[in-house]
Amino acid sequence: MKKLSFLAFILMLAFAATAVAGDPVTYAAKARQLIERGEYEQALDELKRASSLFPYEQSLKVNLALTYTEIAKRDMNAGRYAKAARSLSEARELLPGNRELTLMRGVALYLDKDYLTAASEFKEAGEGVDPLIYLGKIGYDTGDLQGALSYWRRAREMEPDNKMLATLIAKAERELPVESRMDKGFSSMFDLSFDAELPPGLSREVLDALESAYNSVGADLGLFPTARIPVLLYTKRDYGSVTAGPDWSGGLYDGKIRLPIGGITRITPQLRAVIFHEFTHVLIAEITHGNVPTWLNEGLAEIEGRKEFVHPGRNPNLVDASHQLPLVTLSGSFTSMDGQQAGLAYQQSYSMAQFMVNRYGWYAVQNVLKNLGERVTMEKAVAKALSDWSLDLPGLLREWQQALPASAGKAQ
Q: Tens of pLDDT along 87-109?
């Protein structure tokens, strides 16, 4: 009896294995369950195994391509653009000619700043509003405003009511008359455009300062970008008309470094400070993909700028003892503030960021930024980066407050 039971058990296992191995639908169903649980890599392994057993089963190829696509979406949401592009290449090999996959891969490559390959993908995706918008963005980011406008105007013909296109076109049309008369300069990592009215030789000194910032700030933040960085030098009059920024603005980074230059013939410590400040924004934007509170962004930029120049009479280590801005205010844009409030916002942001660097080191700050780049909240980014200190964001702020002079107020 025992022998018969054992044989029956072996036969049952063999039958089950045959049923699974002989049924691609079963593999697909299991893979879907894994995907629903977020276990994408396991789903991928399951479908690859099935595809090797049933190489001509089209449904498995479709499911495998969809799994690669889901993995790519996850990586794009987390800012892992190059990895997402590789997954989309795998998906497209399984579903050649799929326009959506081509477009998605183009977007991933664009966000990774691989502009040449991204442009090829968008052109392959065919005539349509989305490919044209991104081709225009590539032109804009690389300094070809005329080409950008050409793509965007074609897209507007297809969608006349597209508000985003209207905004992009208006911005480029505002900048084109100024930039079309600019001269050009280059260094190893920077593409410089500058007003022909500016003193000769100043552009070279600005490029030298940018290269110094590249090395110095890059060492602090642990990043040395490989994509070229556009920089524009304006007269103060043109800077105001192009950027429409607040009167107190001494520079701007919006994907391009924009600096107002006026009344100087040689680079000054003040201008070097602004260059270092704005270049810091370049690195923070690349690390965090824009997911960063303004106080941390501006605070770190102030640290780097103040290494080059500190305004006389300003105590770099003291927040105003009786006036502090709430954290919620410091987390949003400063551009709507008046000059006095903006000054306090920058000083408080500097104080908080400098405390983080002094107390926990640049490595911890780098980890906060990297965590933000994974699209987590500031609270989670700090808690993960400062886990060795058992600190979260409220704990960090309490330690900062305790380090201030006793008469200082409290951020809320």
A: 999 999 999 989 999 999 999 99
